[in-house]
Design brief:
The chain is of the alpha+beta class and 122 residues long. The chain has three helices and four strands, in the order βαββαβα. The protein has a four-stranded antiparallel sheet with strand order 2-3-1-4, covered by helices on one side. The radius of gyration is 16 Å and the shape is globular.
Length: 122
């Protein structure tokens, strides 16, 4: 299995529940097709560099996963059929990309634990 990551932009008019359901749908699809999820994040609402389908903002979602290379076409088709997905990008990761994501996850967890400790002390 190879390491991949995907970032997809959802339309901004969706509710938080619909966005989380979409993220769950994609992660479930990956695992049902034999892949495994390494990390997933809702990166939030961001301004787009240019309008896409008359939208100037979008909700960015990120998933890092392991899968066979023949699965990627199935994932592309799923994204293309979803009318709420404005854009998507699927990238294969080399050993440097995997290491970078591993370090970023560690930093994020470290930052979250420091924030929790600060909140507990207040």
């Amino acid at each position: 299995m190879k390491n991949y990551e995907t970032v997809f932009i959802m339309t901004p008019v969706l509710t938080e529940k619909q966005i989380n359901d979409s993220l769950s749908k994609v992660t479930k699809f990956i695992t049902e097709c034999g892949g495994s999820i390494v990390d997933s994040q809702n990166l939030g609402l961001k301004k787009l560099a240019y309008k896409i389908k008359k939208k100037s903002t979008g909700v960015y979602l990120f998933i890092e996963f392991l899968a066979e290379s023949d699965f990627i076409n199935k994932l592309r088709i799923m994204f293309q059929r979803d009318e709420n997905v404005l854009r998507f990008l699927i990238c294969s990761l080399d050993k440097h990309g995997v290491e970078y994501n591993k370090n970023a996850r560690a930093e994020r967890k470290k930052g979250n634990s420091e924030n929790n400790n600060v909140n507990l002390n207040n």
